[in-house]
Amino acid sequence: EVIVKLNCVVDTATQGHEGLEKIRQSRLTEPYDVVFVDMRMPPGWDGLRTMREIWNIAPDQFVVLCSAYSDYSFDDIVRELGMKSNFLILHKPFEPDEVLQIVQSVAAKTSRQDRDDRNLGSQLERAIAKEELSLAFQPIIVLKTGEIWAFEALCRWDIDGKPVSRPDEFIRVAEETGLICDLGNWVLREAMACSKQLEYATNESIRISVNVSPLQLKPGFDDALAYMLKVNDLRASSIGLEITESRCIDTGSASEKILANLRDLGFHILLDDFGSGYSNLLGLATKAFETLKIDRLFCAGLHSSSCTIPIVKSVIEVANGLGKTCIVEGVETIQQEKTLRGLGCNLVQGYLYSPPMSFDKAIEWVREGKKRSIRSAA
Ligand code: C2E
Ligand code: MG
Ligand code: MG
């Protein structure tokens, strides 16, 4: 007989809202690997409501729904909550060893992920210190004239020309491990140095737009940026700062003040990935933002039968009404470009114009662009 002992801490709650509170608290210290939710918990929330509430605050939480056959079917539940990979249904009656196996396999998966993240975090720390990161540049284009409005600087982590990790992955790890400030400072210094070099090499002042995590908006960030400008002998208007999560920029918050200071210094502030995640119309009204970048998911949905068209049209109108500019991200096809022209869109970015490129190529691009416009003027 094999006796398996599970080394884990078990916590219980008798009502959905009570469980939710425990999950909220645990996220600040040690998150639960797996949560078992009963379908019926009178008099409070049922299992479905409880799961919806859990995923609202913890979208990655693994949940096992314990349900009798007579309750909702799997199809009903997927229709209600969507298809997720962090979810199982356990039909009653079940045996203790079934619960044991679930807990073991989910915990193993979570600790593998944690270990991978820790490894990636320490590799990243070394890569930042040894300056092994680089920047790629993607042009933002004025639709009417084809001119370059700005370049977005995108961080890359490559060894021998091969990516070690994708930006969305290593940026997430940098945010979770606190490395984002060091990484972000390196990106800002590098972008400023490139801005100076670009102007020198092409005789044109084209803004370079840098992604800034909301976690970098701490007291002192504005002073540090002002100092970097001085060292590089640059005007603040030559640098754009793209901020993603506007939920962190609440009215009256410290972050909002820092953004306002940066705007007063002359930096161009952009609200990135608008329409995805947590951005909302109030974020748009935040005074510091001058430009709004509409998430590329909207562009992907721009075809004649789609309901995305009126949404993009309204967002452009609202932004213009507030005196702000709009950039549509992720333009990949001529058809999308045509639709965007019809919607009054002025600025675009995407593979249709160019993928992110090396700094040398970006310089070439500016020079070629100049030749192109001289030729077309002649
Ligand atoms: P983002 O700021 O929204 O950057 C645009 C992303 O869309 C880039 O991905 C770019 O390569 C990609 N893209 C551009 N045109 C197209 C297109 O036509 N179609 C499609 N499908 N994609 C397109 P990338 O470089 O992988 O960066 C992903 C995200 O990582 C960025 O999204 C940004 O949020 C973050 N990131 C990158 N560099 C930095 C950085 O230095 N600091 C911070 N905090 N975040 C960064
Ligand atoms: Mg961006
Ligand atoms: Mg974006």
Describe this structure in words.
With 378 residues, the chain is an alpha/beta fold. It is 47% helix and 18% strand. The protein is built from 13 helices and twelve strands. It has helices spanning 16-28, 47-57, 74-81, 96-129, 167-177, 180-202, 221-232, 254-265, 281-285, 296-300, 308-321, 334-342, 359-377, and strands at residues 34-38, 62-67, 87-91, 133-142, 148-159, 162-163, 207-212, 239-243, 268-274, 291-294, 325-328, 347-348. The protein has an eight-stranded mixed β-barrel, surrounded by four helices. The chain has a three-stranded parallel β-sheet with strand order 1-2-3. Strand 8, helix 8 and strand 9 form a beta-alpha-beta unit. Helix 1 runs parallel beside helix 2 (47-57), helix 4 (96-129) crosses helix 5 and helix 7 packs parallel to helix 8 (254-265). Residues 152, 211, 242, 272 line the site of one magnesium ion.
